[in-house]
Amino acid sequence: MGLFNVTRPAFFLLTGIPGLESSQIWLAGPLCVMYAVALGGNAVILQAVRVEPSLHEPMYYFLSLLSFSDVAMSMATLPTVLRTFCLNARNIDFHACLIQMFLIHSFSMMESGILLAMSFDRYVAICDPLRYATVLTNEVIAGMGLVVIARSFVTLFPLPFLIKRLPICRSNVLSHSYCLHPDMMKLACADITINSIYGLFVLISTFGMDLLCIFLSYVLILRSVMAIASHEERLKALNTCVAHILAVLAFYVPMIGVSTVHRFGKNAPRYIHVVLSNVYLFVPPVLNPLTYSAKTKEIRRAIVRVFHRIEM
After folding, report:
1. Which residues touch 157 (CB under 8 Å, ≥6 apart)?
2. How many other C-beta atoms lie within 10 A of the C-beta of residue 197?
3. What's residue 249's pLDDT?
4. Residues with Cβ < 8 Å from 234, sequence gap 6 or more?
5. How many Å apart are CA 186 and CA 165, to the nearest integer?
6. Who is most buried in 55, 87, 132, 133, counting CB within 10 A?
7. Rounded distance between C-alpha atoms, residue 143 and residue 247, angstroms
8. Which fold has domain 11-311?
9. Against a cut of 0.85, is the pTM above it?
C-alpha cells in the first residue's frame, strides 16, 4: 500500500527547526527542562491546593484548574515534540494527529476560559468584596469549571471531522512538531472555506470574547481601585491581580502571534512559525507556576509545607 490512499495520507511528518535538523538534538536538554518545570511546577501547585486548607478558596480552586490545563497541554504535546527533537522520529499516524490536534486546541480553549473565570474572581474580590463569599460558592465554582470544560470539547468536537472530510494530497509534511488545525487544513487539495470560517468563528466567539471580557473586567477593577483613597490600599489591591495579568499576557500574546502568522504570514520565514508556535506551547505551562509561586505568598508557604511533609 502506498503512502496515500484516495483521500488522505497514512501518516504526517512533523518538523523540528527548518535547516537545523542535524543539530536540533541539542535542544533536547532545554526541552526536557521546560517539560519538567511545567509538569513538576503545576503538579506541586495542584498538590498544595489539595492538601492545604488555607488554599481552599475560589482563587486557588481556579488556579488548580489552570494548573490542570497546563499539565494536560504539556502531556498532549510531550510525546511528539520529544520524539521529533530527540530521536528525529517525525512520523505520526493520521488519526493520532487528529486526536492530538483536538486535545491541544481543547486544552488551549479551556485555559482561556479559566483565565476568564479568574478575572471574574478578581473583579468580585476587589469591586464587591462583601459579597465575595456568597457569590463564589463551591457550587458556583464547580459549575463554572464544568462549563469551561464542556465548552472546550463541544465547540471543538467538529474539528477532526472537518479535517477528515478533506482530501489531503499536496503533502504530508506539517510545519510543527505537533498537530494544529490551521497547519493540517493547508495541506488539502480542496476548498477549505468551511474549515477556515469555522476556525475563525471559534477564535472570535471563544478566545476573542474571553479576552474582551477579561479586558472589561480590568477596566472595572481599575475604576474601583482608583476610588480607593489610600495609595497603599490601591497598590495592595492591584498586587493581587499581577500574577493573573502575567498569566493572561503569557497565554494570549503568543496565541495571537501564532494565529496572525498562520492566517496572514504566508510569506514569513518558516523559523518564525516554529519559534512562535513553541513559545505558545511552552511559555504558559512553564511561566504560570513560577509566576504564582513568586507573586503569591500563600502559595509559597503551602509549597514549603508540602515539601516539608515529604521530607518528614
Report:
1. 102
2. 10
3. 94
4. 225, 226, 228
5. 13
6. 55
7. 22
8. Rhopdopsin 7-helix transmembrane proteins (1.20.1070)
9. yes
The DSSP call for residue 173 is B
Angle at which helices 270-295 and 297-311 pack, to 10 degrees? 80
More confident call, 215 vs 268: 215
C-alpha cell at 308: 516539608
| Residues facing 41 on adjacent strands | none
Element (H, E) at 12: strand 11-13
pLDDT at 7: 67
Type and span of the H or E element at 92? strand 91-93
CA distances from 306 to 33, 177, 217 (A): 22, 35, 34
The C-alpha R_g of the chain, in whole angstroms, comes to 21
User: Residues of the chain with pLDDT > 70: what percent?
Assistant: 92
Q: Per-domain residue ranges for the chain?
A: 11-311
